[in-house]
Amino acid sequence: MKLCKTVAELRTEVALAKVAGRSIGLVPTMGALHEGHGSLIAAARKENELVIVSVFVNPTQFGPGEDLDAYPRTLEADCLLAEQMGADIVFAPTPKEMYPSEDMTWVEVTGDITKVLCGHSRPIHFCGVTTVVSKLFNLAQPDWAYFGQKDAQQVQVIKRMVKDLFFNVQLRIMPIVREADGLAKSSRNTYLSPEERKAGLVLSRSLRQAEALFQQGERDGAELVEVVREMIAAEPLSEIDYVEIYALPDLTPLAGKIAGPCLLAVAVRFGTTRLIDNIILEGA
Ligand code: PAF
Predict the structure, then answer these.
(1) Which residue's alpha carbon is nearest to atom 3 within ligand 1?
(2) In the predicted model, what is the mean pLDDT of the chain?
(3) With contact defined as beta carbons under 8 Å apart, do 62 and 173 qualify?
(4) Is the distance from the beta carbon of residue 133 to the nearest atom of ligand 1 less than 6 Å?
């Protein structure tokens, strides 16, 4: 496996692959890789001849007071895991390499899709995500790019960007990978104290409960939100950022009962750690 730290190195590898007619799979990550990322890399390995994993803690998607400095940086371990899962290249640029100048171009998806849910408490987040993902798409020129369903809003925003900007890439969205007890895998889980981690299980528990009610025929979105909200609020270590439901794909408010696919998503703080989780309710 090759480690590329510069744009020039990556471009050389990509150019060689293109000349040889090899298909390229890209797995964009911020590092601190876990089994969730592993599942993306494994899927990319199955479907492509060259697999590139980017490891870049992207400063532009962190707002003031967020965890940019504390975000775990574990490049050596990331390279090992990426290699084990079948990556050919890890692209790990510095911030200066990705953002050489302070005068820069932003890529922004506008509308409800970036304003609701995480967009409400993290107003610049998705603009940072779409900007860096555009840069990565342009550099790696992937045939396929792999994202995790845990970041459900990010998935919808990137789908929109790809459609609107005619990016010539197919997106593969992989299911949420969970710990045995239900906690969604996240690089941020390492911040949790044992008590906070135990309290965090309420997220998957409450979403499972909503899913069960939905399967039993409940179609009132507000009712499902209330069930989840009450279960989470009953956990003393939790501080709810949001529990909300929106219609897919554009995250528009539900008009009446659930009639098509929708996203029930939560963001909750446990101490200083903000966890997100979600389920998709397939409607009808
Ligand atoms: O999901 C992430 O880890 C990041 O938001 C991404 C897509 C790698 C962009 O920095």
Answers:
(1) 29
(2) 97
(3) no
(4) yes
Distance (Å) of CA 275 to CA 3, 7, 27, 196, 238: 31, 32, 22, 11, 10
- Phi, psi of 50, deg, nearest 5: -125, 125
Report the nearest-CA residue for atom 9 of ligand 1. 129
For residues 216-233, average pLDDT? 97
Ligand 1 center–CA 271 separation, angstroms: 23
Confidence category of residue 89, pLDDT binned at 50, 70, 90: very high
Domains observed in the chain: 2-174 (3.40.50.620), 187-278 (3.30.1300.10)
Distance of CA 27 to the CA centre of its chain: 11
Residue 68: what are its φ and ψ, rounded to 5°?
-55, -50
Q: For ligand 1, what atom is nearest to the CA of residue 151? A: 1
**Which residue lies with its CA nearest to atom 6 of ligand 1?**
29
Q: Express each pLDDT in 173-212 by its tens digit.
A: 999 999 999 999 999 999 999 999 999 999 999 999 999 9
Report the separation in Å between the CA atom of 69 and the middle of ligand 1, taken as the mean of its atom positions. Answer: 16
Q: How many angstroms does the Cα of residue 61 sit away from the middle of ligand 1?
A: 9
Best of 37, 107, 129 to mutate for ligand 1, by most ligand atoms within 8 A of CB?
129
**Amino acid, single-letter form, for residue 162:** V
- Asked if residue 45 lies in contact with residue 157, where contact means CB atoms within 8 angstroms, the answer is no
From 34, 37, 120, 125, the catalytic residue: 37
pLDDT in tens, 51-86: 999 999 999 999 999 999 999 999 999 999 999 999
pLDDT band at residue 22 under the 50/70/90 scheme: very high
C-alpha 81/C-alpha 74 separation (Å) is 11
| Global confidence as pTM | 0.97
Whether 125 is catalytic: no
Nearest atom of ligand 1 to the alpha carbon of 28: 8
